Amino acid sequence: MPDIRIQNVTFTYAGSAGPVLRSINLTIPEGEFVLLAGPSGCGKSTLALAVAGLIPSRITGRLRGNVYLGEQNVSKMEIQESSQQIGMVFQSPEEQLIHLDVDAEVAFGPENMALPRAEIEQRVASSLAYTGMEQFRKQEIYALSGGQKQRIAIAATLAMQPKVLVLDEPTSDLDPVGTQEVLSVLRRLNEEYGMTIVLVEHKIDEIIPWVDRVLLMDEGSIVVDAPPRKAFDDIQRWQTLGVSIPQMVQLAQALPDIFHGEMPLSVEEAYRVLQGSHYEQLLLQHVTMQQAEPEISALPATQESLLSWNNVHLAYGSKQVLKDINVTVSAGEWVAIIGPNGSGKTSLATLAMGFQAPTSGSLQYKRQSVRAGHVSYQSRHIAYLFQAADMMLFSPTVEQELHFGSKQTKARKQQTEQIVEQILETIDLGTYRTTNPFNLSFGQRKRLAIGALLVRRPELLLLDEPTTGQDEGHARAFLQFLQQLRE
């Protein structure tokens, strides 16, 4: 398989003032597994799109320099040529899935290559087996969870059997078990078939044990290019950028007398070093003390009931999604809905907005029935952030997107301007106020969608995976802001 060569690539999106990529020179040898990391908006996804050949063939802008796969100039190829050699899995699976059911989706690529029916069948079966989705082969796409859709997008790309696989945050909507399963699949493809893999991710802790090389980006440039055990030598740079540092790396740097310059990348590696040291005894004592401490009972809820699910069941045809849900959320509470992919988290939340009706049971907001289909009525008090936040953006600039939300409130103009300025600062998009939202990174678009909701000052926020696509710094800042809102 050929190397990827990126030669002096600079790219500026149409309508943007400055370049997103700045004079990037990089060679990725065939068969290498590369992690591309960096803060939201640094150019990671744009570089991934350029490697996949979507820039400039499908995404308008000014490109200088070229991307090569061996001797082939990917930057000059049509997408139907490059896609047979370089597969791309997008950040949002909603942008990639076009068929009604899983079987048709995964078969679409091989069918367009005019392969024999027997080979198409074999590719579909093996791709679904690789991603653990065989049992969903006849399932309608709409009935899948976000994480399951992400796996199907990966399976559809694998069915093309590309030489290079470029993945833009493929585990962002996956639970921890699903994340490790997908990474295991990618490693197998890398080792067994020599497939070159370029992986854009924020989950550094979970990704780092699997990769051969780490690239860290900042403001359109590559500022770190090193193997995993050397990538964090300048830990201050990572902290300044607000990018996640693996916990095992932090542990090794905090205990230099134990690790002696060794850089563990997994819990197992760190444990082997700690075994037999006095730190092991201290940790065991700490665990024992924690287990002996009495549990602190939760304070009784004194606030009024805000939202309740009462004996709620939900089914899509024969598929039971929710069963006998009885939950009450009190005013001022912060509630986390947690569960593996496909467990019904999103379905539980969408019922509260009236996007659909439960199969049986009822929902109440402030003791009044939540009416299915009357979303505008519920939206006077409740704000809902979709998992695919891009579906919520439609204004030509960031500032107009926020002002649209303010029009739905009764606040005075001066007060509205103050709110918009505060939100721009909170979501860290003050310098992008005149930018088209779709020229922002995925993480920035997610923050903009959240900001547009907050402008309306809702009584209740329903947020479906709000920190997806965010680097550690922005995710922490956003959660702190939510806490300030509550207080």
Mind explaining what this structure looks like?
This protein has 487 residues and is an alpha/beta fold. Helices cover 37% and strands 21% of the residues. It contains 19 helices and 16 strands. It has a 6-stranded mixed sheet with strand order 6-7-8-3-9-10, with helices on both faces. Helix 4 (102-112) crosses helix 5. The N and C termini lie far apart (57 Å).
List the helices and strands and how they pair.
Blueprint: E1 4-13, E2 21-28, E3 33-37, H1 44-51, H2 54-57, E4 61-69, E5 72-73, H3 79-82, E6 86-89, H4 102-112, H5 117-130, H6 146-158, E7 164-168, H7 176-193, E8 196-200, H8 204-207, E9 213-218, E10 221-226, H9 235-241, H10 247-254, H11 256-259, H12 267-274, H13 278-292, E11 305-316, E12 319-330, H14 345-353, E13 360-365, E14 368-369, H15 375-378, E15 382-385, H16 398-406, H17 413-426, H18 442-454, E16 460-463, H19 472-486
Parallel strand pairs: 3-8, 3-9, 6-7, 7-8, 15-16
Antiparallel strand pairs: 1-2, 1-4, 4-5, 9-10, 11-12, 11-13, 13-14
Q: Summarize this, please?
A:
The protein is α/β, with parallel strands linked by helices. It is 37% helix and 21% strand.
